[in-house]
Amino acid sequence: MNRTTEKELLKRLSQCERIIMTEEVMHYILNHPQPKVSAKMLHDIMLLNEFGLSLPDRYIHSIWESSEKLRELRTKFARYDERTLFFSVLGDKFLLTNCFRKTSNKVSRSEIRKAILRRFLQTRQEGK
Fold first, then answer.
1. Chain Cα centroid distance, residue 108
2. Residues whose CB falls within 8 Å of the CB of residue 42, separated by 6 or more in sequence, listed in order
3. Total-model pTM
4. What are 60-107's pLDDT values in tens digits?
5. Burial class (CB in 10 A: 0-12, 13-18, 19+), 80
6. Could you give the CA distance from residue 122 to residue 78 in angstroms, rounded to a whole number?
7. Which of 48, 53, 64, 88 is the S-S candidate for 70 at Cβ 3.0 to 4.6 Å?
8. What single-letter DSSP state applies at residue 58?
9. Interior/surface letters 37-52, b for 16+ CB within 10 angstroms, e for the rest
């Protein structure tokens, strides 16, 4: 399977009017060592765009109950358990902050901190 190019990724994401993606997420998807996993992650992001938070639990899990409402988009392909952390922002839009391979039962605090920091930085950029 061919690797997704940045141009193809941007074309597919332009159809997703509810998705806001950080550069890290785009970089993670573009440079994933397994192109099929990358394609599955993109597919799941498009499902999030279409169905929002009404996706079943196998796709979305709330990992932090607070006013922040941090959630994870779960992508499972073969032995890969990939996670994309995201927030609901600006009404019905979703800010995808960071991706990582899940290797334990809990999301690490460092990944949660990254997500919160990226949301803060994205909000500041939009405010300027």
1. 16
2. 4, 9, 12, 29
3. 0.83
4. 998 866 566 899 999 998 888 999 999 988 778 999 999 999 888 788
5. middle
6. 33
7. 64
8. T
9. bbbbbbebbeebbeee
